Amino acid sequence: MGLLDRIQKQAAESASIQQGFISLKNILIYLKNMNPQVGFKSLAESLEAEYLDLVEKPRLHFFADGHLKLVELNDSTLELNTTKNVRCEPVGQGMYNTLHHVLQMVEKDSLNAEELEEYGFLNFEISTAFGIQFPTDQCNEIDYLKALAEKDARIYELEEILKQLEPHKNAERHATKREDVLSAEISLLNHPEFYVRQGDMTKNEWKKRCKLIQDHLPGARALADLLSSKCGLFWPGFDNPPLGDDAVYRLNLTAIKRVDNAK
């Protein structure tokens, strides 16, 4: 085996071991993300208390420089020969005291101690013991205040966009007025007697003229069909008016009958 192959193999073994290891820092960050209102110090105290209550306790490990070392319960050192990457670890007063000592390094709002990254558990052991599926990847603390601020800013941005899309508070009232005026004009157009002057014509001639004009004006349905056929003149790129033919027909019919209904 060449040097590069040996280095790559060792790196792969180290990565595999690290993937199964979860540091105390990672555990506390995960718990913090699940309980953002609780400080790190309180989380560390709860973690230790819950750990001591376990009947079957997961084993504490130390991970550094690609090597994973087991912290023994009582012995000051433990020699393991299972893999060459697992070595002995002097722990002084044992695993429980080591865990307590490391967790005591947790500050209220930060996890600065290097030991918090070096000490931890095998992921499957701690997940099984606590009934929590801890992540295998590196955890990053979620800044909830920043996230909420960004969310509020986005909501404000969307609200401003919606305000621009919404019609002005007077727009609907003005649209109703315009529709009312236009329908009145359509009704007047369908009554030539209101705008055709009699002039020198006899009354009978004038009535015939008005009748002739009225007969040649498009009715409600014909006017709706005409609007549909000439849609491109008013709404380029669209095949139909904003309202359907039946809706336009009903509006036209209502408009045409306004004079008769007012009499």
Q: Provide the helix percentage.
A: 55-70%
Quick one: overall form?
rod-shaped
Q: Please list the strands of the largest sheet in the order they lie side by side.
A: 1-5-2-3-4
Which radius of gyration do the C-alpha atoms yield? 42 Å
Detailed description of the structure:
The chain is built from 13 helices and five strands. The chain is of the alpha+beta class and 263 residues long. It has a five-stranded mixed sheet. The longest helix has 22 residues.
Give a quick precis of the structure:
With 263 residues, the protein is α+β, with helices and mostly antiparallel strands. It has helices spanning 3-19, 24-34, 40-53, 95-103, 115-118, 123-130, 144-165, 171-189, 203-216, 220-229, 231-234, 245-256, 258-262; strands at residues 21-23, 60-64, 67-70, 86-87, 119-122.
